[in-house]
Amino acid sequence: MSESNGCLSITIKLLAAILVIIFILALPLGLLALNTSSLIFSPENLSRTLTERLVHSGALRRSIAEYIPQSQFFEDMGRDSEIFEAFKNLDTGEWERVLDILLPPEWMEKQFKESFEAISRWLEDDSFAPIIEFDLRPIKARVQGGGAIEIVEMVVDSWPSCTTTQVERMRQTLTETGEVLILLCEPPEPYREQLVQLATRQFRIYVRDIPNTFSSVRDQPPVQETERSLQLKERIRLVRALSFAGWLLPLALLGLIMVLAIRSWRDLAIWWGIPILLAGILTMALGLSGESIGQRYILPSLEDLRREAEPLYNLTITALVGMRDEIFGNIFGQALLISFLGGALILFGWFLSRITGQRTPRQRPPASGPPPPVQKSEAEPVAPHPPPPPVSSMPEDADEKERPSGIFG
Fold first, then answer.
1. pLDDT at residue 159 is higher than 80
2. Which residue, 28, 41, 124, 64, is CA-closest to 335?
3. What percent of the chain has pLDDT over 70?
4. pLDDT of residue 405
5. Is residue 34 situated within a structural domain?
């Protein structure tokens, strides 16, 4: 019987040790999934992080300003449009100033938040694609104000100087029609001032005709695309649910470990305190390894984007770095708290085990020597002592019995 109990105890301890190892490995991964989902699936957190990294830092404006002159932007938007041809000579610094006028930080921050909220609503409904709308009325209002003339001044300054022939054509046109001819070159005064006024009026008319909102809504997609979209949303929902519930697995493992192995305060320090401390240290190491993980697994997948459009690559890296810092920063803070909790449990269990051990009375070992006499109860009858045996009339000295008497004595 004792051998079977010993085997059962060893088996339980071995099972508890396996659960401890699983707990130490599962806690960092569960926290990684939880913090990642808390950022990605939260419109408030995601818009706040990306706004700080992309908008307030100027990274978005700088990347767009670098991307437009290097790309086929104008050819794609309209090769025959004079408005785009006029902007082609702006350098990166001038484009940044134009974007400052057209895209204020407050407007971009609002668009970020509303776009992520639209994506979040799309995950909950049955629509084909998220409905993202951009409110262009603030931009139009800035252009209709003083922004138009400032942009036109920069555009005209970027043009090459007009030749004598071009100036003559402008003079003739001004004489015949009352308006200066726009030849995408910078004329001398007084033609330059009249050209700026004419270009400003045309630019305002062009912007005024732009719709007030830009929406991602399109015609009804085919049935196959709708089914693929719904399947994608189901997978995303599953990933979101598992990532939010992943941190519950380590808690369940702690409960099983308590049932199997913890029977005293000392066991609490060993089977809970030490695993929690080790899991906290491993989580802390994970929090410090965010940069190396990104360089090893994320950067190689973006090499194609880097070769095609380096400004967009830099913008993507800036956004990913911001998200990485937010996620792994939270993980590192949680790891410190978990490590402190594990150390506190070790000290707490050890201290209580010491106190409990001092209060428990110790049994003294039996003293050497004969056992104490057994005391009988008063109710038990006491047997009478037997009488002493008769004493023989032996002389005190045996020699006196044989000694002769009389005259020979």
1. yes
2. 28
3. 80
4. 47
5. yes
Q: What is the largest CA-CA distance in the chain?
A: 201
Helix-, strand-, coil-residue percentages of the chain, each rounded to 5 = 75, 0, 25
Q: Is residue 112 part of a domain?
A: yes
Task: Taking each helix axis as running N to C, give the angle between helix 223-245 and helix 2-40, from 0 to 180 degrees, rounded to the nearest 10.
Answer: 130
In a domain, 379, yes or no: no
Own/partner pairs for 357-362, CB < 8 Å, 24+ apart? none
Q: Which two tokens stand for residue 307?
A: 């070769």
61 token code pair:
């404006």
Helices (H), 41-136: 43-50, 59-70, 73-78, 82-87, 92-102, 105-124
Inside any domain, residue 189: no
Mark residue 384 as left, alpha or beta (left: phi above 0; alpha: psi -120 to 50; beta: remaining). beta
Distance (Å, whole) CA 258 – CA 186: 83
Range of the domain at 315: 2-136+211-353
Q: Please name the residues in contact with 44: beta carbons below 8 A apart, sequence gap of 6 or more.
A: 113
134: helix, coil or strand?
strand
SS3 190: coil
pLDDT above 90 coverage of the chain, percent: 13
Q: Tell which residue, 274, 405, 260, has the closest CA to residue 348.
A: 274
